Amino acid sequence: MRLLTIMACGISMLFGAVDINTADMTELATLKGIGNKKAAKIIKYRETHCFKNVEELAKVKGIKKKVLKKNKGNLTASECKVK
After folding, report:
1. Sign of CA dihedral 51, 43, 10, 14
2. Which helix (H) or strand (E) element contains residue 75?
3. Residue 19: helix, strand or coil by DSSP?
4. What is the pLDDT of residues 49-61, one digit of tens each?
5. 36 to each of 26, 42, 52, 83, how far by Cα in Å?
6. CATH for 2-76, among 3.30.70.2330, 1.10.150.280, 1.10.1740.10, 3.40.50.720?
7. Tell me, what's the pLDDT at 81?
């Protein structure tokens, strides 16, 4: 599992930023300060909300602005698709 996470992190770094509106749990868990539990919270939040920008990730319980700062160059938020 750890190897899979490391590989996913490497791939996301090679191909660009992690899209917080579309990333799966494995990809989200590769971010600094985000593990499986916080990745699951992001996905659950995303089911009823949409991230209009990266800063809105701080609206998820347990995600602090410090996490945003650590991942600043590796995050993006695509167009919202939640109704």
Report:
1. negative
2. strand 75-76
3. strand
4. 999 999 999 999 9
5. 8, 10, 23, 26
6. 1.10.150.280
7. 72
